[in-house]
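Table S2 (text version). Query chain:
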Amino acid sequence: MSVSFANKDHIRTHMREQSILCPECGKAFSTTSNMKQHLKRHSGVMRYECPKCPRRFPCRSDLCSHKSQVHDEPRYECNLCNGRFTKPYQLKKHMMYHTGERPHKCDFCEKRFVCLNHMHRHRRTHTGEKPYKCKYCERAFAQSNDLIKHLRFHVGENVYNCELCPRSFRLASELRLHFAGHKNE
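Corresponding structure-token output:
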């Protein structure tokens, strides 16, 4: 009896046969291409720019995801509030906030979460785990976005551009402070 390709993928997913590790943070992947795509997120280099706003991304897939979530016309509406979404799974997840459904529970403190990745991120507050390591210095971070912000200081990349003058900044908070100065002019 042979197992179909789709079933093998399903089984592999559930058995977590992920043997290719990211050399930066140790996250496991089932394919080399997935790991290489993930590795771009560690570089801090934001190569792909959104044509509709100043946001930049390390991977084309991140840019595509951003464009569909932020700039596409919402087609799915919540009947309980003004929430509007571009994807049906976004509406489904949103509805959990209304119903109070929190399917993912922290093993340490019983706190519950709508999103599995939010629960994993929360667990690091208990374990002290900092899987996102800087390749330029000894610093490590519990969240990937903190590593990305940190890497900008090493690579000198300014991704937040002022629309009123030629200055650019590494952090959104720096741009906000700068922009407040324009309001006082």
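Notes on Table S2: The domain at 143-185 is CATH 3.30.160.60 (Double Stranded RNA Binding Domain). Residues 1-8, 10-18 have pLDDT under 50 and may be disordered.
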